[in-house]
Amino acid sequence: MLIAVTVAMAAFAWHDPVVAVFGAAPVLVWCLGMARTEQAGLVYGVILVALAAWILLPRDLGLSGNWVPSVFEVCLFLPVVSALICALGLRAQRSGGCAGAVGLAALIVVGFLMAGSTVLDYAEGYTRNEGVWPGPSGLRVVEREAGCGSGGCTRTMEATGDRAAERMRDYLDSRGFTAPGYNKEWTCRIDGLLLEYKVCAGIKEISPTTVQVSWLI
Predict the structure, then answer these.
(1) Region label for 96, one of left (φ > 0), alpha (ψ between -120 and 50) or beta (otherwise)
(2) What SS3 state is found at 215?
(3) Which keywords does this chain's UniProt record carry (predicted)?
(4) What ranges make up the beta strands (E) of 29-185?
């Protein structure tokens, strides 16, 4: 049950794949490799699921803000906190769980490496899909050539279809782009308690059926 709930949350948050994987991994490691007794397995499993929900559900529901952990914090802090929770669970069970411990250790190492890579990309302005691409279903979307400069790279796509601009605004809103941007055409998604991650997107209506969307970090 805990695995099914976690996988479902991760699936709905897959537009942010790094967060989805790291959010779900501790629950899977605990349930499949470390839980030995029914009572302790359930108690500590629920704690890990609650932690995963704090990370994944806001992304599932299109929420953002400084109360939502950023990708930096998910990669850096979640594996460490999860390892501590699992260590307490193992102590409560009075069991080793070597395979699970190896899995958590690997998760911590990969988390630090991924956090470092993400920080470098963010500092250099390397813009990924960021929950914007490929846009809402039902629109014909074509990506244009990215524009790169000293401040980083801005990606652009054009979407065509009925009520394209309105549907694109609704789509971005569902991805957490709710903070004011550089002007009325731009909106931003800002996450992070301590380590902020910000991505902004601008919508330019070209015609009633065509809209151009640009986004950057």
Answers:
(1) alpha
(2) strand
(3) Membrane, Transmembrane, Transmembrane helix
(4) 140-149, 152-160, 179-180
